[in-house]
Design a protein that fits this description.
By secondary structure, the protein is α+β, with helices and mostly antiparallel strands. It has 26 helices and 13 strands. The strands form 5 sheets. It has a 4-stranded mixed beta sheet.
Length: 686
């Protein structure tokens, strides 16, 4: 899914596993789901014609009855799942905190992180004290060498000063890890915030330096000094933004793969002194690195020379406090929320502390909590159930590839070989990470976060020179999301993504399961291996051409029609960015098509009987809309379009279904309906 997650729905149901008792397990049936419990019936708004706005037709009754809470930027189906899991994890944290567990145990780490975050009195007493050591080191900078070392040190504790750096599989040698250097160093989500002239972006840009100055004041600067600091930060960030590539440009894997030897890197950026940088970070000097955007680093190098040391000190102070503001005392938290929560997302109050702390702990050491969560809330039987459903979808995808009328046989053979090599990781890992070197205590919430960040930095850096661990998971089992890895050639489906608000498993019919858990998640992630980016990686996860020229031309032309379709959608006063969202849009369409094909193999579809007044096809498409049911604040929608590669949730329904012939037949969609697309204009890729 890897999506802007749709949020909570408030039906009076328990969050339950959508366990597939359908054809994937050889027990296909259509349960007698009572209409009063049927979410597809309960949510449907008959006053909206399906051919005009299918998303609102399917979900309108729920949308009208469930306004977005003041603490949220969006609300929908996923938030109910997230909140249910939160309650389960809170129980684990509170039990761990009360257990008096031995120091160094997983239980001690989970409990102490929780206590440090919930101890608001101690957090208030500490104020900005947890940042004191780094602030003093920044203040003591007297020359460029010290400046470079401090930039490197900040990276190890999670502050992406000047640029981004991460360790990953080499795109052209997936059996090796490599250092990636990437554009970054900005306090706003995307480069365009620094330049666009529309009223919304202009207001954000006007408020941003005020926010920086307010944070600097909290660090002890007087009002005039804080304003100067904000001007320094904005000058450096604007220069970095000017050299940054757009969201669309960053999606080209070849253009953003620029491998350089250390000597070549030093020639590009002589002022940065990378050997010293890597040494300070504790990374052995690599033979080569991948530079995402060479022009960005040339600008960053120039700034290191030409911006004054005082300007750089202000920039580093800002990066430090901005990174840890939510782990500090209330004035820092509240100022951070005013800008990022209220202005950028439209929220009016923050989430309760326990939710904020739990989200931080999930991000920090979620796998430790996940080990307990799996024992309590998952089972090997559930894991096996979804593994069978995944296999069903892979078989259907293979059949679709074989029947493609636009792809030649040589490319089909390679596509099928790649599909067959995809590693399917379902529910939870067989091996857990070792956190034994991570030190957590109850003394400071912010200090715990710094130690966690450093632990993760060291964990990733230690991969260099080692064999690639293809069994590693990069999500916790309780995560309501999923991903496809192009380099690892794998689909990863945590148990959490199969959770859904609804009725008991025994009452769920095939149509809902194959649409919600299937099309919107499994089929979507499989298709990422063959979207405009994923298709460029071969069966072994290496970036190299494997398509015939003719097939590439065909794919590109079909993808362009999808770009054009989404470019035409307007949300607020912005057009959706069809090129930036192309990979997700291809995967939404592919997932829907594959899900429908798989559903057609079930007995429910073959019998064609109505359930609660709905045909099997109607139930499938309504089930797909149910998977994305939710609504977002206008401010958050604007932020999404500016910085997210996903289209808004309602377009993740209306966009794909308008390209599927069966949808038109199921709901009698005709010319003149708002969503109608002529058969020759419907996008057909996978």
């Amino acid at each position: 899914m890897v999506a802007a997650i749709p949020r909570r729905w408030r039906l009076l149901f328990t969050t339950l596993l959508l366990c597939s008792s359908q054809s994937a397990m050889g027990e296909s049936q259509t349960p007698a789901l009572p209409a009063e419990l049927d979410p597809l019936v309960r949510n449907l708004d008959p006053s909206v014609r399906p051919g005009d706005d299918f998303f609102r037709h399917a979900n309108g009754r729920w949308l009208s009855g469930n306004p977005i809470p003041a603490s949220e930027h969006s609300w929908g189906i996923g938030r109910l799942v997230v909140d249910q899991v939160r309650r389960q994890l809170r129980e684990i944290c509170e039990e761990s905190a009360a257990a008096n567990a031995p120091k160094g145990s997983s239980e001690q780490r989970v409990g102490d992180f929780w206590v440090s975050g919930m101890d608001s009195l101690r957090i208030e007493r500490l104020g900005a004290e947890p940042l004191r050591e780094e602030l003093e080191r920044i203040e003591a900078i007297e020359n460029r060498d010290q400046l470079r070392r401090e930039i490197a040190t900040l990276h190890t504790i999670g502050v992406s000063a000047l640029h981004s750096l991460f360790i990953g599989q080499d795109d052209k040698d997936s059996d090796s890890y490599v250092v990636f250097l990437w554009q970054g160093g900005l306090g706003l989500d995307d480069r365009d915030y620094y330049f666009l002239q529309d009223s919304t972006t202009t207001r954000i840009r006007e408020e941003y330096p005020k926010h920086i100055a307010a944070m600097m004041t909290l660090l002890g600067q007087d009002e005039e000094r804080a304003k100067r600091s904000a001007r320094s930060v904005l000058a450096i960030e604007t220069a970095l933004a000017q050299a940054s590539r757009s969201l669309e440009e960053q999606r080209d894997p070849y253009a953003n793969y620029n491998k350089r030897s250390l000597r070549q890197l030093d020639e590009l950026t002589p002022a940065i002194a990378w050997s010293d940088q890597f040494g300070t970070m504790g990374i052995p000097a690599p033979d080569s690195v991948v530079v995402g955007q060479p022009e960005f680093f040339a600008t960053a190098d120039s700034l290191l020379t030409h911006a004054t040391l005082d300007q750089w000190k202000d920039y580093l102070r800002w990066g430090l406090v901005n990174t840890f503001a939510q782990r500090l005392s209330r004035p820092f938290e509240e100022q951070d929320f005013r800008f990022y929560g209220q202005l950028l997302q439209g929220r009016t109050v923050p989430r309760p502390r326990w939710k904020r702390v739990l989200d931080a702990e999930e991000d920090a050491i979620g796998e430790l909590m996940g080990q307990v969560w799996v024992k309590r809330h998952c089972s090997p039987a559930m894991k096996a159930r979804y593994e069978r459903l995944v296999d069903d979808f892979f078989a259907t995808y293979a059949e679709r590839i074989q029947r493609l009328d636009w792809m030649t046989e040589p490319t089909k053979e390679k596509a099928l070989a790649k599909l067959a090599r995809v590693n399917k990781k379902v529910a939870y890992p067989d091996q857990w990470k070792d956190f034994s070197e991570l030190q957590i205590d109850r003394s400071s919430y912010a200090a715990n976060q710094m130690r966690v960040n450093e632990w993760w930095f060291r964990y990733e850096a230690a991969k260099l020179g080692q064999p690639v661990d293809r069994d590693e998971w990069h999500m916790t089992p309780q995560t309501y999301n999923a991903y496809y890895s192009g380099s690892n050639v794998e689909i990863v489906l945590p148990a959490g993504v199969f959770l859904a608000p609804g009725v008991a498993d025994s009452l769920m019919d095939d149509a809902i399961v194959y649409a919600n858990a299937g099309a919107a998640t499994i089929g979507h992630e499989i298709t990422h291996g063959f979207d405009d980016n994923g298709r460029q990686y071969d069966a072994f996860g290496n970036l190299r051409p494997w398509w015939t020229d003719a097939d590439s031309v065909q794919f590109t032309a079909r993808a362009q029609t999808l770009i054009d379709q989404y470019d035409a959608y307007v949300v607020g006063d912005r057009h959706v960015r069809g090129e930036a969202t192309l990979g997700e849009n291809i995967s939404d369409l592919g997932g829907l098509v594959i899900g429908y094909e798989a559903f057609k193999k079930t007995e429910q579809w073959k019998k064609g009987e109505k359930l609660n007044g709905l045909t099997p096809d109607q139930r499938f498409f309504l089930g797909y809309a149910f998977a994305w049911m939710g609504q977002q604040r206008p401010e958050y929608l604007d932020q999404m379009i500016m910085s997210d590669v996903h289209a808004p949730a309602f377009l993740r329904v209306n966009g794909p279904v308008s390209n599927v012939d069966a949808f038109y037949d199921a709901f009698d969609v005709k010319p003149g309906d708002a969503m109608y697309r002529a058969p020759g204009e419907r996008v057909r890729i996978w």
